[in-house]
Design brief:
- The structure is a single chain.
- Helix 5 crosses helix 7.
- The protein is built from nine helices and no strands.
- Helices cover 65% and strands 0% of the residues.
- It has one domain.
């Protein structure tokens, strides 16, 4: 089942993460999109080029190196930062604008008692199902949020 991120995520991400999630960008989207579709979506949304040092591919590489404390620490820090930024964005949006009933819950993440190691493992597993080329063109924020939303959405 392919899961798309809700439209309010785009407002949050554009303000906080500067990534375009409005088109339902997720790890599953990156896997199924054809190069032409991805190029057209990128052009129509005028998104900035992906920083190769913080693409989904580079983050997945760091997260796979569990024996390397530095790389794994960078992975955990990045994932925690992405999630915290997103959650603060949801909170900020819900306080600043009137949303339809249950809209805040729909874009929220249910992470109570979920260890970061579980989120890292799920992200690495999801990333392993996507081609390296697609991961290199996908911002790390989009991939992480897509993976977390797939596994821990509140709806």
């Amino acid at each position: 089942m392919q899961r798309h991120l809700p439209r309010p995520v785009a407002r949050i991400a554009s303000g906080l993460l500067m990534v375009c999630l409005a088109g339902g960008a997720s790890l599953a989207w990156a896997q199924t999109a054809t190069p032409n579709t991805a190029a057209n979506a990128a052009q129509s949304q005028a998104s900035p080029p992906v920083d190769p040092t913080f693409s989904a591919w580079s983050l997945a590489q760091s997260c796979q190196q569990k024996a390397d404390n530095v790389a794994h620490g960078q992975c955990v820090g990045a994932i925690r930062g992405i999630i915290h930024g997103y959650q603060y964005g949801v909170l900020f949006l819900s306080q600043r604008t009137s949303l339809a009933a249950k809209e805040t819950q729909r874009v929220s993440l249910c992470l109570r008692d979920v260890p970061v190691s579980t989120i890292v493992d799920e992200f690495v597993q999801d990333a392993s199902q996507v081609s390296a080329d697609s991961l290199k063109r996908t911002p790390a924020e989009v991939a992480v949020l897509g993976s977390v939303h797939m596994h821990h959405a509140c709806d």
